[in-house]
Design brief:
Layout (H helix, E strand, L loop, with lengths): L9 H5 L18 E5 L3 E7 L7 E2 L2 E2 L1 H23 L5 E13 L8 E12 L2 E10 L2 E17 L1
């Protein structure tokens, strides 16, 4: 099956292993699966598990939510590198977090959906707006700047 790199079919995305898109390794992987990809928008879903390093008293903490957003951005970059540019995983860094609001923390067993919309991308810098929802309720919104290390394969 030929893959449309602008918006691959859902069946294809269901088979993508996020571990192949990220420089992070377990137990520091904070996304579960890639559910949507196009050049402007990336969506991941994650079930909060009790042994996650950011779970405390059955709640997934703020640092975990931030890392979830960053890894959704990284999954986008990893997808582009692997399936479009045919190159290795690059290392990225959070350059800035702005206008972050956390409305509530998800609990163990909750499914969170993270949507990242690219606002601007230039010279290895990505500015994205991110929203995390749980049970269709918005639990986080923020803007994040990610810097990608040139030639910095993981």
């Amino acid at each position: 099956m030929e893959i449309n790199t602008q918006k691959p079919p859902k069946e294809f995305l269901m088979g993508v292993d996020v571990h192949e898109l990220l420089p992070q390794k377990e137990p520091f992987v904070m996304i579960g699966k890639l559910t949507h990809f196009d050049m402007r928008k990336t969506v991941t879903e994650t079930i909060i598990v009790p042994n996650n390093i950011f779970v405390n008293d059955d709640y997934f903490g703020a640092f975990g939510l931030i890392e979830n957003v960053a890894q959704t951005c990284a999954a986008r970059i990893g997808y582009i590198n692997k399936y479009i540019l045919k190159k290795g995983i690059q290392i990225g860094f959070i350059g800035a977090i702005r206008n972050m609001e956390i409305f509530t923390l998800p609990k163990v067993g909750d499914l969170i959906t993270t949507t990242v919309d690219v606002q601007e991308e230039i010279f290895g810098m990505l500015l994205a707006r991110a929203v995390i929802t749980c049970d269709e309720n918005q639990i986080l919104e923020t803007e994040m700047k990610i810097a990608v290390k040139e030639g910095g394969n993981a």
